[in-house]
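Progress narrative, Year 2. Work on tRNA threonylcarbamoyladenosine biosynthesis protein TsaE from Parasphingopyxis lamellibrachiae advanced from sequence curation to structure prediction during this period.
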Amino acid sequence: MPSDYVLANEDETLALGTRIASILRPGDCVALYGDLGAGKTTLARGILQALGLEEEAPSPTFAIVQPYEPPETRIPVWHIDLYRLEDPAEADELGLDEARRDTAMLIEWPERLGPGLWPDALKLRLTVLPQPVGDTVGQSAARRLTATVPQAWEERWPPA
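Result:
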């Protein structure tokens, strides 16, 4: 069941991350879809900050997996960026299935998993909205967030 939201700016994206963090549990997967610059990392940073991460979370583009453990975060969480994967089989080496048992996962570029994404993943697609005529160039553009909510998340979504 998809739901749409408009996030007017970066602050609203970070605030949504805070609300998602309040309902996130070990074993959950949040799949973040969108083009380059759509706000996937910003949303992941909002979640990680709300889970207690004090420094700014780096984009895990080169590391692919950036793990966080208590006391750094309230629960164990892996921030994963699959952008550099060329074949879904490469994900097998990351140990995602094993780690997921007791770790929440935030996955950027989940489409790189092919059919390997778990059916109970919360799918969030971010799309940059066109700026109205006359808006200042460089001003943060609004994003549309479309959530595809699986049954495992229905009682928790949308986060308060």
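The radius of gyration is 15 Å. Residues 2-153 form a domain with the Rossmann fold fold (CATH 3.40.50.300).
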